[in-house]
Amino acid sequence: MVVTEIQAADLTGLVVGDELGRGAFTTVHRARRDHATYALKRPNPDNAADPGLLLAFHREAALLACVDDPSVPLILAAGRLGGAPAMVLEYIPGGSLADQLSHGPLPAERVVELAAQLARGLAAVHRVGLVHRDVKPGNIMMSPDGTAKLIDFGLALLGAEPETAQDRAVGTFLYTSPEQSGMLKRPVDGRSDLYSLGVVLFECLTGGVPFEADDVGQLLRLHLTAPVPEVTAGSPALAAVVVRLLAKDPDDRYPDAAALLAALRECPGGEVAAQAAVTRWPMCGRLTEREGLADRWRSARTGRGGVAVIRGPGGSGRTRLAEEAAALATDVPVLRAACQEDEALPLAPLRAAVEDYLQAVALLPADRRAEAEQRIREAATVAGPVLVARLTGRLGELLGDAARAGVEARDDHLFGAVATFLAELARNHHGLMLICDDAHWLDQGSRAVLARLLPELPRLPLLLVLTERDGSGIPTEAHADLELDCTPLDPAEVEALVASRLPGAIVPADLTAHVAARTDGSPLAVVTYLLRLLDAGLLTPLWGTWHFDLAGADALPAAEDVRALLASRLATLTDGDRDFLVTAAVVGPRFRTETLVAAGGEADAVVSAVAAAVERRVVEARPGGWFVFMHPLLREALLDGVGEERLRGLHAAIADALEGLPEHLRDADHVYAVARHHRRAGDAIAPDRRRRSALSAGLRALDDMAPAEAIGYLEDAFALDPSPSSAVLHPLALAYLRAARFAEAGTTLDTAMAGEPDRRVRAGLLTTRIELHHTVWDDQKALEAAGGALAELRRPLPRNPFGLVASTLGIGLAGGLVRRTGWGFGKAQGRRRDDLAALAAVLDAGGYAAAVGLRVREAGVLAMRAMYAVNRLGPCPEYVRVYCLVGYVAAVIKLRGTADRLFARAAAVAEQLGDPALTAYVEWMRGAAWLFGSHDGGTSFEEAITHNARWYGPAQLIPGFATIGIRMLLRGYIDQSQAEYERGLRWLSDPALVRGTSFGMLPVMIPAMQGRHGDAVAALADLRENLPWDTTPKVQLAHMLVANACALVEQGEFGEPFEALIAEWRGLGLRVREMMTQHKLFYAWQSHGRMAQLRMATEAQRPARLAAARAAVADLNRVRKATPILEAAYLIGEAAIAQMTGEPAKAVEWSDKAEHVARQADAPIIHFEVARFRARAFRQLGMVNESDRQARLAIALATHHGWESRRRQARAEFGAEDGAATNRHTAIERRGGRDRRLEALQQIGAAAATVLDPQELARVTLDEMLRILGAERALFFLLDDAGEPVQFAGRTAGGADLAETADYGSSLVRRVAADGEAVVVTGTEHGAALGSRSAVQHGLRSIMVVPVRFKGTLLGVVYLDSRLARGIFTEDDVEVLTSVTSHVAVSLETARAAQLHLAVRSAQQQQAFAEMLRASLAELSGIHNPAQLLRTLFGMLADHLDAAAGLLLSADGTMVMEATGKADPAVLGGPLPVPVVVGEEPALIDAPALAALLGGATAVLAVPLQHRDGRAGVALLGADAFGEGTAQVASALATQGMSAYLNACLFSRVQELATMDELTGQHNRRHFYAIAGALVEAAGRGERVLAAAMLDIDKFKNINDTYGHGVGDEVIRAVATRVRASIRHSDVLGRYGGEEFAVVLPDHEGEAEDLAERMRRAVGDEPIPTQAGALTVTISVGLAHLDPSDASLDQLLARADHALYGAKEGGRNRVVVS
């Protein structure tokens, strides 16, 4: 801000006295005025002439005057005294706190009083935006009345000034916080002052500061790392306050001074902290609005909750008014949900609100905190702790085991659970306020929660406060019973607001009038403008009033005058100076004087011109000799009016100057600058020079991953080159490729190949062609190009398969040998290195293309053939890429461990190379490997794309967008899936390029899920047309077929097209291990379709379709573990089988399991399917109300998420309304439409329960319809095989049968039968318009025709008419009749199914037994812990055999390992009191004593758990009686279980071998790194002590050479055993390699050196017995303590290793500390 001159007030009447103190820049004197004594602050004489001091004094005085707190000295006046700046402050007689502390510590009660005073003072200081930055005893003055006052705000700043470095360390270091000293890289805020206050309080209590050191650096490190010494003086509560203030991390301190005051109130003498801190400015105006909020809150507290909406434009004070409402809720929870635009995380505002509330609870005193936490637990218990724990991690920790316990699946999902939690929280606290700020940005999840909460509000003590911008609309269709508008403040309110921000002095009227005139009455504008005046030094305190420089304020530019004001600075320059600045403006936004001189300027003149520009604030100096324009508008003003000819000449001169600059003056963008000036100079520069500079810039742009810029420069180079070579064409092709301009890339490569004779260059061109082909997913052409490139390099692939395999293995083994031995590793040089690099590039590109196309064999061959080349090259990009490729292949063929190691090696080399793009590539390849190898469902891939998108091109991004889009789609989030698809399209120049990819599935699947079947069919037709079956790779065909399956299922097409599709899929011949994760989705849609076919099957079709459905579920079972969606689909398939085979209860159980998976996966579409199957199952069970509720839930989900096909299918099947479930529709139905529908369903339901004859059931239905809907006639038609309607039943309103008749709307019936859409005719004319001659001929004035569907299939039509009046039927009646006809259809089909059920019941029982065994084995196979598996098998035996009690015995039958049911728990874990003899097979045994232990059972069954290697245990089961065949069931189940048990034992052993060093039994290196690395990270985060040691056996080679490797192994084992025995249980020991060990010592509490010495003595003090005799063995130990500079375990161990070498060089057998 520019002010020509500040009109400062003259400070008259002051008599200056003696000096009170002196600093580096200012001096303080005693002064008197009117018999009062003051402190006078003035600049030191050598600084007094500084023109900027007056502004600085004015700003400091004004800001401190705004503090207005007793703990900060009053600022009485500021202005000039004797022509120099001066400031008059309150004089504080008495000494400082430092003086008092020189006499010793203070009493604890006095410390609490001081802390409270200073906390209130700091709160007021922080309110004005100041941070003191120098709180220490010397800056705390003690007034005679005992009030502590903060002085010396010289270091305080308003916000973060631009000229202040963020890491500047200021203040006295004994009291300085870690972030203020720069040791902790965090912004300095008010919490830094709280840390300093903590040091002061520590000194007050103990007489000394917590950290002292002679060296400043050591002192700062102590502040950062050392634990706070114990505070023994004072109460534990006060000590805890001090310790918290001294937390290293600002987040661990009190959030503000107000929270500190609250903690002080709990200390002895805490009543002095009762006065609250002033943390907010008072609110001015809005009195009516505040009163309205207060009244509404009082009403809500009585249990009559509601919604208050606060509207207004930006800056109108909406949020401030909401905060005023929050201040009313003093004793109940207040949840503040701040909404953000485009928030990605569902429920993000509510999550943050709950998290903030929990953090506030954690700050409460112990008793109040415990009470609040208990209320939270109670609320969560009602809502479902497992669900609500998902809101925040802190809530999960609070709920503990309840949040992790397995609970029975329930219907209420996350949104409902959160709404319930909030409601219960309000009830438990008798009040709750939920504030949603900027509610127009509420995410959909939060809106769903509020929608569930709103109906309960009238009965809850909860007030929902929503703030929103004008015109945004109420976000949740909530009825607001209080609506407030934040209109502009009137003049009186502006005056009050100004006065509130300028306390302690009178505000002049001209200031208020000026502010009101310059602002629009919005509070934010008023406050912002006041700060502008303060910052300009135009407001200062002056003896009880505010001195206002009106002239200076009037001179402040308005926003629209900025450009004119800036341009006026140029008018003061001379013409010569301006010319030089024009040249500078042509150079760019920044320039050097050397460039201007080289462009033709005389050196002195250039320097003079730039100096003048700096003086006039046109440019400013920057480090490195650079100058920049102060504002872009200044540069634009200089260039205005400069002619084109002159501009070209200037560009040419500047280009010459830039090319002539010495190397050390050239900037990083030098190449671009030269090319840019050459381009703009045009013909003024020779074409050859322009071509060279354009080529250089284009190549640089390619390196900088800027393909669009590269294309511009390279096209220039191409145009200027009369005979362009590959040197231009190849990079241009690469640029086109990177920019997704694939056709141009291909054409350019063709041109380059045609004119290129060099074989190596041709190989490079073909390598780029490989990349081009795999980018557009044409892996076949990519492999052909790879073959051509290898031929150019004279390394063709052998055509003989045996030769190919043999040579590939040989090359791969040679590469492995190079890496393992180090012979030749990274040693290739010169031309040999270039050849190997070219070969590696070809093999990597070809292998990558094959891998992405899932041509695993080809990818493996090419990757293995690259191993030798990359190991000879050593660490380089090719090395990383090839190791990633081999890792990818390993993952796809299920070698997960090998893949992990390969990716880890690639990542390590990428990190070593310091190339973030390579690191991102490793993450992409790892994510792709886990996805395509079915190791996860795409989570890793999604994370890689999300975190590293800036490093990827279309080839990497498109599959990422496809993966995310498909995952979103399968979970039911269609809009998010559409967004990912559209993101991907933005990267494609031609969407046709990705037809055969997973991305190409989305344009079929998205519209299919949305119910836009025409679009889906068109997209699918496009795929089939352009992906011919004979020439398209299997992977791409699989993508197309999966999308086709989705489209057919969503359309409800389960006939011939569906069967043909399954036949096509089988014809592909893809094995499961060859499938990508998305391919396995086919089985989910196949299962869905088979279930639909089964539902629609006739009696004759049913056996075959049931078998097909079971086969589909079996197929799904094979791939179910690939993703949670497939797991849920499998469980739903089982539920469907159970429901349709007459086991509805079991169907509900399966659906419960599916719902559990859906909750974990956040998949609402699975919830929909679960609700739909539950509705069917509950209907079968006769639970009509529950069935209806589930149907409504399904329809509500489909409506909410936009699954149009599913919504229609559910409504057609169940006839339920979505309005009741979603609150989206409100229908006013005549005669109580909803009640009429329920009445009809009840009547029809009662009839269906008693009437079995289908025709009689039809008559009852028609009678009820005639009665309820008021029709005259009703006809029921069924469709024949040709689809023609045939009358099945007819009734009149008088209750008579209606024989076949022709006087009805037959054309309308046929129309409905054809298109399945209901028709309502509201008059004869309407009927005529619809083409019904019968309506006219027979005078039918009201007609309604509704289709009858069962499971999506049209079975018939119901027809009602009346001649009495028009408009009898409405659209609402269609829903009534649809509900009834659907119910009838189900009842008719149920009656038919009952006969079939009786026929197959026996077969079902057999199938149930087989299914039980299969499901049990599946569950057991997923358990890899042998002990856990035995317990699970024992539980299964007890459950499936209906045992009342059971005991699981050890293998020898003597110990009791587990008890269940009524078994005596006293025997658990001890010996079995009664001996038992068990045979080889399950059998009933006669053992009365055992029966007593089994709860008095009269029958005891002994089941030996026998496997091929022996016995794992014995299960004793007790019951009143066991049924026939029980022993056979037990035997089958035990046999299956023991098979799984052996697999678990094998897995457990493999896991042990994978983590343990076989020789020593200690952690191997990999496992040691995993554990120790986590400890190091935790210690670094928590600032805990930790040390690491490296151990090496002294002269071990001599032992091996003298006694042999066998004795050497004995020595290594003994050393490991002794070291392990000498250290603590918490210490981690690992074999590092050979005779070297590593140890990490966490939380050693200063004993690290002792532990190291103990290890050394444990080995060396006693000889080690070996087969060669006792040998004296010693070790050397290097020890290093964790330092803040240690970024990882590797760095810490490296320092320990360095110390180890010191121990070796120092004579061995010793400990050396780093």
From TrEMBL:
<dbReference type="Pfam" id="PF13191">
    <property type="entry name" value="AAA_16"/>
</dbReference>
<dbReference type="InterPro" id="IPR000719">
    <property type="entry name" value="Prot_kinase_dom"/>
</dbReference>
<dbReference type="GO" id="GO:1902201">
    <property type="term" value="P:negative regulation of bacterial-type flagellum-dependent cell motility"/>
</dbReference>
<dbReference type="GO" id="GO:0005524">
    <property type="term" value="F:ATP binding"/>
</dbReference>
<dbReference type="InterPro" id="IPR027417">
    <property type="entry name" value="P-loop_NTPase"/>
</dbReference>
<dbReference type="InterPro" id="IPR003018">
    <property type="entry name" value="GAF"/>
</dbReference>
<dbReference type="InterPro" id="IPR041664">
    <property type="entry name" value="AAA_16"/>
</dbReference>
<dbReference type="GO" id="GO:0005886">
    <property type="term" value="C:plasma membrane"/>
</dbReference>
<dbReference type="InterPro" id="IPR011009">
    <property type="entry name" value="Kinase-like_dom_sf"/>
</dbReference>
<dbReference type="InterPro" id="IPR008271">
    <property type="entry name" value="Ser/Thr_kinase_AS"/>
</dbReference>
<dbReference type="InterPro" id="IPR029016">
    <property type="entry name" value="GAF-like_dom_sf"/>
</dbReference>
<dbReference type="InterPro" id="IPR050469">
    <property type="entry name" value="Diguanylate_Cyclase"/>
</dbReference>
<dbReference type="InterPro" id="IPR043128">
    <property type="entry name" value="Rev_trsase/Diguanyl_cyclase"/>
</dbReference>
<dbReference type="GO" id="GO:0043709">
    <property type="term" value="P:cell adhesion involved in single-species biofilm formation"/>
</dbReference>
<dbReference type="GO" id="GO:0004672">
    <property type="term" value="F:protein kinase activity"/>
</dbReference>
<protein>
    <recommendedName>
        <fullName>Non-specific serine/threonine protein kinase</fullName>
    </recommendedName>
</protein>
<dbReference type="GO" id="GO:0052621">
    <property type="term" value="F:diguanylate cyclase activity"/>
</dbReference>
<dbReference type="Pfam" id="PF00990">
    <property type="entry name" value="GGDEF"/>
</dbReference>
<dbReference type="InterPro" id="IPR029787">
    <property type="entry name" value="Nucleotide_cyclase"/>
</dbReference>
<dbReference type="Pfam" id="PF00069">
    <property type="entry name" value="Pkinase"/>
</dbReference>
<dbReference type="InterPro" id="IPR000160">
    <property type="entry name" value="GGDEF_dom"/>
</dbReference>
<dbReference type="Pfam" id="PF13185">
    <property type="entry name" value="GAF_2"/>
</dbReference>
<feature type="domain" description="GGDEF">
    <location>
        <begin position="1584"/>
        <end position="1714"/>
    </location>
</feature>
<feature type="domain" description="Protein kinase">
    <location>
        <begin position="14"/>
        <end position="264"/>
    </location>
</feature>
